[in-house]
Amino acid sequence: MQTPDASAMPPVMVLAAGLGTRMRPITDTLPKPLIKIGGETMLDRVLDTFGRAGIDRAVVNTHYLPDQIEAHCGARIRSGKGPSIILSREAGEPLETGGGIVRALPHLDNVFFTTNSDSFWVGDTHALPSMLSVFNPLEMDLLLLLAPRHSSIGLGSHPGDFAILDDGTLARRGHYPVPFNYTGTALMTAEIFANAPEGPFSLNVLFDWAIERRRLYGYILRGQWMTVGTPAAIATAEAALDRVQAF
After folding, report:
1. How far apart are the first and last CA of the chain?
2. How many Cα neighbours within 13 Å face the side chain of 133?
C-alpha cells in the first residue's frame, strides 16, 4: 500500500442521511444538514471547508427527507461552487455511518475523508492537508481529527472521547474524562471495510477494531470546532461564530 500523495487531496464522504431526532421539531420538516447556522446551512459550511482545502469531489449520502438535500446539492452544483457532488441515496432502513460509507465506496478512492454534516470548525485551514501529510496507511487504519475537549462548542460537560497514548495511538475514555473529542472528520482507506458487517453499522465498530490493532491515530485541530445537535445548540454555535469572527 502506498502512502498518499499530500499534493493530491482525496474525496470526502459527507454523512447527511441521519434522522436528526434530537433536533426535533425543526427536523420534522427540514433535514438537519440544511439547518442554518449564522446564515449558512451546516452542509454548505462543511462542503466549503473541504473545498477550500483543495478537495474537488464529495459524496453526500441521503435518507431522511432526501429530496430536500438533493435539491440543495443540485442548486449548489448549478452555481458552480465546488466541490463536485455525487449523491448516494439510501432506501429502506438507515445504514448508519459505516453502512452508508460501504454503499458509497464505488464513488470513493482508496484513501478518503469522511465527515459529519452537523459539525464544523472555523480556522485551521491547513488541518485537512496536514492530516493527509501525516497519514501512513502502513501504520494507520484511521486518522481521526480531534478537538480539545475544553474548547469544543456544543457538547456541554461531555467527558471527551479519546486520549492519545505515548505511542501516538488512541484509547477510548473509559471511566475518566479524556482530553479530546472526535470531530466527526476522519481519514481512512477503503481496505478497512473489507471485513465490515453487512447492512447498518456504526463507524465505531471500525474504531474499536483499529484500537485493538493499535492502528487508530489522531490529529489535533487548532481551530474552533463546534457541533449542533439540538435546537438550543444553534444559538450557542452562532454566539461562538460571532466571537471567533470578531478577532
Report:
1. 43
2. 7
Taking the C-alpha atoms of residue 216 and residue 219, their distance in angstroms, rounded to an integer, is 11
In eight-state DSSP terms, residue 79 is T
Q: Cα–chain-centroid distance for residue 164?
A: 20
pLDDT at residue number 7: 56
Residue found by looking up cell 427527507 in the block: 65
Three-class secondary structure of residue 47 per DSSP: helix
| Domain ranges (residues) in the chain | 12-245
Say what the pTM is. 0.92
Q: In this structure, which amino acid lies at residue 19?
A: L
The confidence score (pLDDT) of residue 123 equals 87
Query: The C-alpha cell of 112 is what?
Result: 478518503
Task: Kindly state the cell numbers that stand for 67.
Answer: 429530496
**Domain 12-245: assigned CATH number:** 3.90.550.10
The predicted model gives 119-134 an average pLDDT of 93
Whether the link from the prior residue into 33 is cis, omega within 30° of 0, is no
